[in-house]
Amino acid sequence: MPRKKTENANNTLALIVIGAFLLTALAAGLNWWSRHHPPPHDIEAPGKTAAPVAIDAPPVLEYHENGISEQAQAVTEQRKNELGLAAESLDLLLKADESLKLGDTVVSMEEILDRIRLKRGDIVETEIDGTAPRPPMVDGADNVYGIHVVKPGDNIWNIHFRFLRDYFQKRGVSLSPVSDEATAAGYSSGVGKILKFSENMVYIYNVRDRRLDVDLDMIHPLTKVIVFDMGRVLALLDQIDFNSVNRIQFDGETLWIPAAQ
């Protein structure tokens, strides 16, 4: 009997040792599993994983074969409202740090503005970080540039006139369709003088060849745009009292606007 009790004791001890070993192994296994398999609440549900967003990248406003993209339309309409414009002659309104996508070609406004500055004879400086300095804010335009995408049959004078008509219409003044024509005595009308002067404030840019152009003739569609410097244009138009528009003088370089009565 004593011998049998000893054997039972040894068996019990062995079972305890084996159990302890198994518990240790189980704990180690669970620890390894938890480290390599995060709990469900740490894993985002399918379909909710957000793609990485380049928040520093400026937006690209698109104009394709079928017209303006929805995003570009929304941005442009908001900016027109902010500037008090209803200009149908403008397809897009971009800021200096944004880009234009015309068809399959993307060009930054900075590239276009550099060409314009060189054309005007401005010195193009570059900051240490590689960006061009921004001009000061002008009359709430906040460095906004109007873009008209050139279509077959477009005429630069008519585009200017439509913009001017829309500008004044938004302010309660209706321009006659012939208000830009010469007077009976053969003199330019006030509206005609404004349009002639405004030719110095807009530029034709060839997106395909990445250069400023001198005419609207196109070989390929979606290749040219007219760029309006909205700060300069609005700074000019906001000074004009339409009641005295015909007293405006223009000598080919300088536009004299009579003071408001």
Instruction: Compute the number of helices.
Output: 6
Mean of all residue-level pLDDT scores: 74
Largest beta sheet, briefly?
5 strands, antiparallel
Number of strands: 11
Lateral arrangement of strands in the main beta sheet:
3-6-9-7-8
Low-confidence stretches: 41-45, 52-57, 123-140
Helix/strand-derived category reads alpha+beta
In terms of topology, how is this protein built?
Blueprint: H1 2-36, E1 60-64, E2 67-68, H2 70-83, E3 92-95, E4 99-102, E5 105-108, H3 109-120, E6 144-149, H4 156-170, H5 190-198, E7 202-206, E8 211-213, E9 224-229, H6 230-237, E10 249-250, E11 255-256
Parallel strand pairs: 1-4
Antiparallel strand pairs: 1-2, 3-6, 4-5, 6-9, 7-8, 7-9, 10-11
Characteristics of this structure?
alpha+beta, four-stranded mixed β-sheet, 6 helices, 11 strands, 36% helix, 16% strand, elongated
Describe this protein's structure.
This protein is α+β, with helices and mostly antiparallel strands and 261 residues long. The protein contains six helices and eleven strands. The strands form three sheets. A five-stranded antiparallel β-sheet has the order 3-6-9-7-8. The longest helix has 35 residues. The chain is elongated. The termini are far apart.
